[in-house]
Amino acid sequence: QLLSLTALEESVFRRVPLEDLNVAWFQHVMHPRFRPVPRTVTRAIDIAFAVIVGLVTLPAWAPAAAFMRLSFGKPVFVERRRIGERGRTISLLRFRVARRTVTGGPPEEDAPAVGFGKFLRNTGIERLPSLVNLARGDITLVGPRAVSPDRLAELEREIPFYGRRNMMRPGVTGWAQLRDATEPETELSNDLFYLKHQSLMLYGYVLLASLRRPLRRAVTSN
To answer: What is the structure's pLDDT at 218?
Structure first.
């Protein structure tokens, strides 16, 4: 069997080479016969996950909100603008972990966490409010990492087709996150691989592997 170098890299390294990427490549995922993961299935899993995790972590919500209210005042929650599926703007909820700006506005995204906010950030409790976004369908469990509008505009100027990641809903975890693809180019190549090859089997693999990671770290550290 003969394979092109592009197909070989895709099958071996599980990423899409960006050098040969063009408009024609996306015809595959826009073809009527293309069958992505059924939305009804992922939506049911998203809602079930949000409800179960929300109930399990509920005892942590009130103390966290109380500490932040006493430390920083209102608001306890902040919204982070991100680009969602098909380019629409969404607001991801977070616990506030930093002080207000000098003008009295909400803290900047890159503002360092202080005091009890450091604990919330290090333990991941800061992100618990995003379960609300998951339940209402702004994000899904498995998908590309959400980026801010300014960052997306910058990356679209630098990297062709970067915005095509938004053909999928942003995810809590994803193929690129699982493979520690932090550079924008490698992130895009991994996200496009998931876009093209998405299936219930790959969806389940990414989800289970992501859930197993914290447990593996805990075992290794002990």
So the answer is: 41
